[in-house]
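Minutes, project check-in
Item: structure for the 149-residue chain
Input as provided by the requester:
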Amino acid sequence: MTSNETQTEGRRRRVTLPPSTSDKGAPSPKNSEEPKRISHTEFQKRVTSDRSDEPVLSCQFEVFGIVQGVSFRMYTLRRAQKLGVRGWCKNTNENTVKGEIQAHRHSFESMRLWLKHTGSPTSRIDKCIFSETVELTEFTFTNFSIVVD
């Protein structure tokens, strides 16, 4: 009995297995296109190019709570870079962090949610207040930065 045959209750039944790369080194035929993996950088290029016709949303924010120090600002900077958000943030004399974010709708909403609910794991945010959201025709910032007083 070959590997492609099985025996069930005294009867032989032929089972067809799909060809594999181990069979005589021949590659398996592709009946359907497999999705091609792309790098994160290439994905970001496609995302930004697909959204170039969308308006840019912008708003200012102020975070209250224990947010002083480098930790919160660095987490905010990293998150903004990951999402492709532009703008700035800085510590204030009132022990808050103020800033502004600009992005296309999906990235903008993701950043707002992150600021409101997550922030830095060590910051213990009490609340985050956002100003009115405004639509812009283009970005006014080249990247996201930390402003030092």
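Outcome recorded: The beta strands are 5-8, 11-14, 56-65, 86-91, 97-103, 125-130, 134-136, 144-146.
No further action items on this chain.
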